[in-house]
C-alpha cells in the first residue's frame, strides 16, 4: 500500500483517476480539475490523497487543511509544511451528506480500518509537526466504528435528507405520497409560477448562459443573511469555481429571473446514475424580488421531476431544515463525525 498526495492547484491528477471516479461512481465534485479551481479560491485548500496497491487505486480522500481563524485569510502556498497549528478534515466540501473518503468497489470492509490508520501516519509526515489531528465528517455508522478507537471521539452529526425513488414516473407520483396540505400547496405554487408573465424559469445541464460571478454574489448575500454554519471551515464558492461548475454536462442549474434579466433565485443539482444531489440554493428576499413566492418548493418539484426521468435510486437534499424536508417525503439518513487527535493518529 502506498499513498500519493496531490495538490490540485499545481500537481497533475493521479494516474487512472478518471477510471477510479467512474468505477466508484463518484459525484462531479470529485473531478480533479474542478477541485483545483475550488482549492485556488479556498482559505483551507483541498488535497487529494489516493491509496494504491500496485497499479490500482483502492481509496481516495479529500482533505481540507484547516487553520485557526486568526491565521491569514488566504491559503498558504502549495507544498509548504506547517509549523503552525493546523488540523485536517476528511471532507468533500460541496457534497453535503457524503464522506470525504471513498473506496474502490470490492475493497474489503475489513481492511478499511488499517488503510485509514496508514493514511493518518502518512498525513502526519506530509503536514508536519503542526498537525493537531484529523476530523472525519459526514461518515456512516459502519465507517465510524472502523475509524473509532481508544482516544478517538465519535459523535452523531446532523443527518442528511434523502428521498427514495418509489418508482416515480413523474413528480405527480411523488406529490401524491405527501400530506394533503403539502399536495395542494405544491400544485398551487406550481400553477402560479407557470402563469406568472413576469417570471422566467429555465433549467438544464451545461448552462453556458449563467454568469458565475452573478451566482456567487447571490449565494454570498443569501448566506450572509442567514448566517454562517457553526464549525464550517469551507470558503464561499468563488465566481471562477461556479462559472466552471454550471457549465458541466452533469450539473443542472435552475434559474428564476424577472423579465429584465435580474437573477431572483438559483439552484444547482448534481446528476448521478444512483443519487441525484441538490446543492447550492440562493434567493433574493421576497420583498426584494417582488414576485415568485414558493420558488424554493418549486425547485424541489423540478428536482423530483428529473429524478423520475433519470430513474435514479434517490435524491439527496443535504442537511438542515429536516422537519420541512420530512414533510416533502425525505427521510433522515444518520451521519457521524470522528476526531482523531495527534497522539492517536495512526494507532
TrEMBL record:
One Pfam family cited in the UniProt record for this chain: Acetyltransf_6
GO molecular function (one): acyltransferase activity
Keyword Chloroplast: no
SUPFAM superfamilies: Acyl-CoA N-acyltransferases (Nat)
Ranges where the BioF2-like acetyltransferase domain occurs: 181-325
Keyword terms: Acyltransferase, Transferase
Enzyme class per UniProt: transferase
EC identifiers of the protein: 2.3.1.-
Name of the featured protein: GNAT family N-acetyltransferase
